[in-house]
Amino acid sequence: MRDGTSSGGDFGQSLRTLRVNAGLSQEALSHEAGVSVRALADMERGRTRGPQRRTVRALAEALGLDGEEAARLEKAAAAGRPRPRTAGGPVGSGALALPRDIEDFTARGPALARLLDLAREAGAGRAVVTVVAGQPGLGKTAFAVHAAHRLAQHFPDGQFALDLHGMDAEPTTPRDALARLLGAVGVADAAIPAGTDDRAGLWRSLASERRLLLLLDNAADEDQVGALLPGTGPSLTLVTSRNALAGLESVHRTDLALLRREEAVELLTRIVGPDRVRAEAQAARDLADLCGHLPLAVRIAGQRLLSRPHERLGKLAVRLTAEGRRLDGLQAGNLRVRAAFALSYRQLPPDSALVLRRAALAAGADFSPETAAVLAGLSHDEAVACAEELTDAGLLWSDAAAERYRFHDLLRLYAAEQVEAEDGPEARAAALDRAEEWMLRRATAAALHFDVDHEHPSSPGDPDPDTAPTGRDEAREWLEAERAQWLAALRRAHDAGRYRRVLDAAEAMHWFSDLCQHWEQWVEVFRRSADCARLLGSRREEAVHLNYLAWAYNLCVHDPHAAWESAEAALVAARECGDGLQEGWALGYGAGALQRQGRMEEAEERLRAGVRCFASQQSPQGRLGELTILSTLGALLRQTGRAAEALEFHLRCEQICRAGVPGRTQELIAVYRAVARQQIGNDLAALGRRQEAEEPLRQALAAFEAAHMPSWTEQARLDLGRVLAALGHAEARQTLRTARDALAALRSPLQMEAADALAALDEAAVRTGRDLARDRP
User: What string of DSSP letters covers 150-168?
Assistant: First the structure.
C-alpha cells in the first residue's frame, strides 16, 4: 500500500502524493486519465476538493491503484464534495440541488422534445444554452425544472439550479452567483478567487471538463447571465427570465405559448381530479377560458378548488366572470396572479409603466403605438420604445407582421387596476378624451379618401399629417386595423354630446362602408349618427343618415323589418325638407326591405317611383342613384319571372356607365359597370343562355376582386359557380366551395345558397355515376 491515502484525508494532498510516488508528472497523469492538466492542477492545489466519481475512477486506474487504495481516494473525494446547503449557511457552502419536480406538469411536449435534442447534441464544442423567456404566469420556471429532471440522466457530473432573483430589488450579482457555482462543483471557499473575472475563468475551466446541467432561474439581464455561462464542454444551461435577453449571442430560444383550451382543462383535471371535472365539464372549460389559458391562473384556480373539495367548479366560474373580481378570485394561499404581474410591473421605468397601464384603456384585442402614445401623452417614438421594452419584459405580445401589440386578458385587467390606483379618474378621462378626438379626426380624414365628392390627397384635418395614411390602400389598412379604436371613440363622442364630431366621421365613412358591407358595426355607426342629426335638429342630415342606416340593416345584418322602419323615417324627413335625392334613396332602400320580405308588388311600385325621383335630379349623385335603383328593379323583375325585361334595365345601366357620369372617376364607374355585368350574366342565365352568361360574370368577379370588395366578390363568385355547374364546367365545384367558405366567413345568408348549389352538384355527380354504372354491359 502506498502512503498518502489516509482515511478522510485531503483529496488534493492525497492525489499529489500518489502521483509523485507513481513517478508521474501532471502531464503524464493527465494523458493517462483523460483529465486536463489544468483540472489536475486545480485538484492538487485544493481548488477542486471533490471531483466526480467518474473522474476519481479514471485517476485511480491511471495510477494503478488496487481496490482498497481506490476506495480511500474516493472517500477523500467524497469528503470534499458539497453537502446540501442549510438555511443561513455561507455562500458556496452547499450544492445547488434542483427544486422538486411538479407531478401534475401538463403539456409542453414539443418544447421538451427540442430540449432533449439539445441535450443529445451537447458535446465537447460550444456549450449549449437555451433561454426560456416570456410573460409572467406562463410557467417558465415550472417548465425548466421539469425539463431539468427529465434531462438529468444525460448529465451525470451534476445538475445545479440557481435562483438569480432577477425580479428582486437587488438581483444576485454575477460575483456571488459564481461563488455559489464554484462551491457546488467542489471548490473550497478559501480557493475561490476574489474577482469576478477570475471566478468566471475558473468556473469555465471546471465546467469545460464536466457534463453539467445548469438551471439559471429568474435572470435579470444579459450582464448577470453572461459571466455564468460555460464557454465550452458538454454542458447544457437553461436560463429563465421575464425579459427576452435578446443580447445573448449563440443561444437557443424556447418560446412558451399559452396552453390550448384542452391542455388547460387537462391541467385542471390533474389538480382537482377527473371526477370533479367530468361532473362539470362545461364549467371546467369556462374556467380555462376565464383564466386566459395562462398556466399560473389555471393552477391557482385548481389549487383553490382542491382546498375546497365540496365547492362546485361552476361557482368559481361565476365569480371569475365578473372582470372586476377576477384577479381577486385567482389567488390560493401565496399563489396570486396579481402578485406575479406586480413583480414585473415594479421593475419598469416610469414611461414604460405609464404606457402599460394607459394601453389597457385601448379598445379591441390589440393596439398600435399611435393609440398608446395618445393615451399616455407621449410622442410616437417614445411610445414605440416603451412598447418594445414591455415586449422584451414579457408584458406585451407584438404582432408578427404589423406594428401592433396586445395584452393577455388577465394582464390587461391588472394594468387597468393600475390606472385607477395611480392615475385616478380625472387623468383617465383626460386620456380617453384625447384619444377620442385624435381617433375621430384621423378616421374622418382616412375615410375621405373614398368619398367621391371630395379629393383629399393631403388628408386635411388629420391630427398628425406626418404619419397620416396616404392614398386609399393605406387609409383602408388603417381604418380596418383601428376599427375597434375609432368605433369606441365614436361611442364616447356620442354619449358625451359631441354630435357634430360623430356626424362628420359617419358622413366621411359613407363611401368606405360600401366596400366593407360585411361589417355589422355600420348599424351602430349610422344609428348613432342619425340620432346625432336628430338631436342637432337637422332634418336633411337626419334623412341622409337614416338612409345609411336602412342600407346597413338591409345589407350588413340582413334585417329587412328594421330597414323598412329606417327607410320610412328617412322618407318622411326627406319630404319634409324637400330633398329629392334623399327621397329617391329612401324609396330604394324601402323597396329593398319589402323585396326581402317577399312583398314584390309593393317593392316594384316603390322602385319605379325611385327611378322617376332620381331621373328628375340633374346632379351626378342623381345619376348614381338612378343606376342603383335600375339595377335593383331589374333584379326584382328577374326574380318574379321577367328576365327579358330585367335584361333591358341592366343593359340600360351598362349604357349609362359607358357614357360616364360627370364628376365621377372611372374607378368608381367601373364598380357600377361590374354590378351591371353581374346582373346581365344572371339575366342571361335565367333566360337559359348560360354560355353567354359566363363571360359577364367572370368580368364582374374580376372587377370586384380588384376593388377589394369581399361581399360583392363572393356574391359574384356564387353566381358564376351556379352557371358553371349548369354548364358542367370543371371549375364549378371549386368555385362554389370557395364562395361557400368565404360567404360563411362574412356571415352572409347567401352561404346557404352556395351550400345548396354545391350539394346539388354533388348529387348530380352521384346520379350520373349511377346512370353510367347501369349502362355498362
Answer: HHGGG-TT-EEEEE--TTS
Pairwise CA distance, residues 568 & 591, whole Å: 10
Q: Is the pTM of this model over 0.90?
A: no
pLDDT tens digits for range 183-198: 999 898 889 999 999 9
Helix (H) or strand (E) holding 405: strand 405-406
Please compute, for residue 437, the number of CA atoms within 13 A of its CA located in the half-sphere on the CB side: 10
Write 330-336 long-range contacts (CB < 8 A, 24+): 330/291, 330/297, 330/300, 330/301, 330/410, 331/300, 331/304, 332/300, 332/301, 332/303, 332/304, 332/307, 333/303, 333/307, 335/296, 335/299, 335/300, 335/303, 336/300
Q: Could you give the count of Cα atoms lying within 13 Å of 447 in the half-sphere of its Cβ? A: 25
Three-state secondary-structure class, residue 632:
helix
Distance, in Å, from the CA atom of 3 to the CA atom of 21, rounded to the nearest integer, reads 8
Cross-strand partners of 335: 332
Which backbone phi and psi does 147 adopt, to 5 degrees? -65, -40
Spatial contact of 296 and 136, defined as CB atoms under 8 Å apart: yes
The Cα–Cα gap between 353 and 124 comes to 44
Q: How many degrees, rounded to 5, is the angle at CA 622 between CA 602 and CA 592?
A: 25
Report which secondary-structure segment, H or E, holds 252. Answer: strand 252-255
Q: What is the DSSP letter of 468?
A: S
Strand 405-406 and strand 397-398: the pairing is: antiparallel
Q: What b/e string do you get for 562-576 counting C-beta neighbours within 10 Å, with b at 16 or more?
A: bbbbbbbbbbbbbee
Burial call 246-255: b when 16+ CB within 10 Å, e when fewer: eebeeebebe
Return d(Cα 430, Cα 499) in angstroms, integer: 19
Element (H, E) at 236: strand 236-241
Nearest to 282 by CA among 299, 268, 296: 268
Cell 326627406 maps to which residue? 574
Cell match 444554452: residue?
129
**10-residue averages of pLDDT along the chain (777 residues):** 44 89 87 78 78 82 89 84 42 67 91 90 79 92 95 91 90 94 91 93 91 95 94 92 91 93 97 96 97 95 94 95 90 88 92 97 94 96 96 90 93 95 96 97 94 63 90 93 96 97 96 90 97 97 98 94 97 96 96 95 96 90 91 94 95 92 87 95 96 96 92 94 93 94 90 92 74 52
